[in-house]
Design goal:
Helix 9 (210-220) crosses helix 10 (227-239). The protein is α/β, with parallel strands linked by helices and 272 residues long. The chain folds into 2 domains: 2-174; 196-259, Arc Repressor Mutant, subunit A. It is globular and about 65 Å long. The strands form 4 sheets. The protein has a 5-stranded mixed beta sheet with strand order 2-1-3-4-7, with helices on both faces. A 3-stranded antiparallel beta sheet has the order 10-12-11. A two-stranded antiparallel sheet has the order 5-6. The chain has 10 helices and 12 strands. Helices cover 38% and strands 15% of the residues.
């Protein structure tokens, strides 16, 4: 079995589970991109990896990595076909996992019997203290709990390909910069400004560090979201004049202080 899972921390837990159950052991393909944000409209001229690399270069100043998700997947798929191995996608209830699932489907549509899933959406697990909880992603699932998921392994059916196989195309056509998880396998497209109100509501009369503002915004947001996107939106709002601030808008956020407009303190009149 070749495993496909989103995120390094989730992959770390999966690999740790291999030591607890040899029947789970297999090659692991880690998808590191977060498809819930940014441009996803690839073309024959500009491929998926190139589009996604440009997205992250827009969001993160100085981003130098090259996204290689598509090439990694194609290599894994080639190995699966050559060795007649099934592939399993691990899906949790978050935008990055469900978007990745929809992105994967077109690659497997002509290969019946290859793609399987382990879907934990809506299922309870036990944390390290033995308390029941509902994980939002596999990075939250202890390795010993991965073993219980084996019974959830199922082949993606013909009907699932028919019903869900065009979801990625729909999301590409909408191609907004924010995608939201709304339960089950439902993903909705939202405007790039979707999280701006959350940021604005946290800015008050007193100055606060930009880095602290991002931390507080991330606590308020229930979606699984890369913090770099909130940093990007804060910088955009600063450049648009939405707040008062001191510091270099392109510099480290910990060196930027932000406050609400209309809270300037006038200098005292020192006329003699």
């Amino acid at each position: 079995m070749i495993h496909i899972i989103v995120g390094d921390e989730a992959a770390k837990n999966l690999r740790a589970a291999f030591d607890l159950d040899e029947n789970l052991r297999g090659e692991v393909l880690v998808l590191k991109d977060t498809l819930g944000i940014g441009n996803i409209l690839s073309t024959p001229e500009i491929g998926h990896d190139e589009i996604r690399t440009e997205t992250w270069r827009t969001i993160i100043p100085g981003f130098e990595q090259l996204i290689s998700e598509e090439s990694t997947l194609k290599e894994g798929l080639s190995n699966a076909i050559q060795h007649e191995e099934p592939m399993c996608f691990w899906m949790a209830p978050c935008v990055s996992d469900v978007c990745a699932y929809y992105w994967l489907l077109p690659y497997f549509k002509s290969l019946p019997g290859v793609l399987h899933t382990i879907n934990i959406i809506g299922l309870p697990f036990l944390n390290e203290k033995g308390q029941m909880f509902y994980p939002n992603n596999f990075s939250e699932v202890p390795p010993k709990e991965f073993i219980k998921t084996k019974r959830l392994l199922k082949e993606v059916s013909v009907s699932e390909f028919e019903v869900e196989g065009d979801e990625w195309s729909r999301l590409q056509q909408e191609n907004t910069w924010v995608r939201i998880y709304e339960g089950g396998k439902k993903i909705s497209s939202k405007d790039i400004t979707y999280f701006d109100t959350t940021i604005k509501n946290l800015v008050g009369a007193e100055k606060q560090k930009g880095s602290k503002l991002v931390q507080e915004a991330m606590k308020k947001i229930t979606q699984s979201l890369n913090h770099h996107f909130i940093e990007y939106r804060l910088r955009q709002l600063l450049q648009q004049g939405a707040f008062l601030f001191t510091g270099n808008v392109e510099g480290p956020l910990k060196e930027i202080e932000v406050s609400k407009l209309g809270t300037e303190v006038e200098a005292p009149n020192e006329t003699l």
